[in-house]
Amino acid sequence: MTSTFKLFRGLCIFLAFYGTQSFTQPKLHFEKEKNRFNFAQMHLGYEYSQMNLKIPTITNPIEEQAEIHNIVFGGWHFWGMADFYLAFPVQTHEEKGRTFSPGVETAFRWYPTPISVDKLRPFLGIGFNFTKYQQDPNAPNKTNIGYPINAGLSLANRNFQLELGVRYQQDPSFNYFISTSQQRTFEAENTSFFVAIKRIVDTTVRAKRHGQINQKTGFYPFVGVGPSAAWITAGENSYFKQNTPWIDGDVAINIFPEISAGVHWKNSATLSHRTIFQVAWRQFNYTLKGYESHYNLGYNSFAFEIAQTLFDYHGFVPFVGLSYNNVKTSISGDISSKENLSLIGALFGWDILPIGTRSPWALRTNLRWYPKVELTLEDDQTVAFPNFEFNFIQWIYQF
Q1: Looking at residue 343, what is its pLDDT?
Q2: Under a CB-based contact definition with an 8 Å cutoff, are residues 272 and 309 in contact?
Q3: To pair with 102 at 20 to 30 A between CA atoms, which of 13, 22, 206, 378?
């Protein structure tokens, strides 16, 4: 029994168990009334699709079909008109030493007409993912960032949502070094169909009877933890391009932990108006290798941050601020170097506060951008590290 099948079986049991709970009480609350308690609602589910591939070789490409199994986690916002979600692949496609993974997809989906029980609803969305391919265990990994568009139809009952759709990516192909001197094109089908089933989860509607509870002015400490991704949008990988061009230095780091702590300064009696002071720790290591070249890279950062909330729209509270980041970068293997960097960047994101600021918990999304993160070697060649971070969802506990 494969790990994929075990995970899929576990998800089916989870969905079946919760599906047996009271179908008489609707779990989809958008069509009742619009308030801060049903502004957002979570979902968890499974998505299946297939993708045709053309694997590069010295002569003719090899055609293969990859099955893609995703666990989907996200939330509807704006009373069922917007869906922000993550799709995590539960396995990689492997064939004769070759490995292919569609990577984690982060996406936004818009419903022109809000989701409603027993009614068919169209949707249109866009996202980004990090496709990864490796020709064989001795070959390099190649990362390709894509921005797929998706469209389809959705049908929901009181507890579940069924989706049928099509996903389109303009150019999912890329060049791949099949040796240190030869490149060929890896081709992937730009259109694929998918089917998904999602379990609708309610966590806040019952809190309506308590009403909105906001804090008095003062300082309130908190801690937070959640998964993040990072990738390179600026910076020069001149070392790899000049010395080992078959090594793809423009990497994307799919999942790493972010831990934060700080205080909320409630400096106004106005709804969720407050200032955020926090420190955030992120750390990840990754390996770049292929054809006898081998590099280990490390990134360890500790940021001091301040942000101000802008407004409170039914529990959706965006904020903007600054991030002062202290980063330890390192590379070892074929070369060895390290450098400590101090960077100033932008911080922005939003909180979901359905109950108000007095609630002990909240969901937060953080996005960070730094102009560039580069380790400079002795000969002035550079190695770039990810400079854009996306903390998908962070669980905040406030004392």
Answers
A1: 96
A2: yes
A3: 13
How much is the pTM?
Answer: 0.80
Phi then psi dihedrals of residue 239, to 5 deg = -60, -50
Instruction: Write the DSSP assignment of 117-165 as a string of letters.
Output: BT-EEEEEEEEEEEEEEESSTTSPEEEEEE--EEEEEEEE-SSEEEEEE
d(CA 354, CA 317): 10
Tell whether 224 and 324 lie within a shared domain. Answer: yes
**Residue 185 shares a structural domain with residue 315:** no
* Domain contains 178: yes
Nearest alpha-carbon partner for 384 in 256, 226, 247:
247
**Nearest C-alpha neighbor of 88 from the set 72, 75, 110, 74:** 72
The domain that holds 30 is classified in CATH as 2.40.160.20
- Find out whether 166 and 142 touch, Cβ atoms under 8 Å: no
Q: Which is it for the CA torsion 156, 37, 18, 194, positive or negative? A: positive
User: Both 181 and 102 in a single domain?
Assistant: yes
Q: Count of H helices and E strands in the chain?
A: 2, 23
CA distance to 3, 16, 49, 195, 342, per residue, from 70 (Å): 13, 18, 9, 10, 38
pLDDT score of 156 more than 70: yes
Q: Do 117 and 154 meet the contact criterion of CB atoms below 8 Å apart? A: no
Confidence of residue 31 (pLDDT cuts 50, 70, 90): low
Task: Give the pLDDT band (50/70/90) at residue 30.
Answer: low
Residue 1 domain-assigned (yes or no): no
What's the mean per-residue pLDDT of the chain?
A: 83
pLDDT tens digits, one per residue of 210-242: 555 555 778 889 999 998 888 888 888 899 989
Q: The domain containing residue 350 runs over which residues?
A: 212-398
Give the pLDDT score at 270.
63
Residue 289's beta-bridge partner residues? Answer: 294
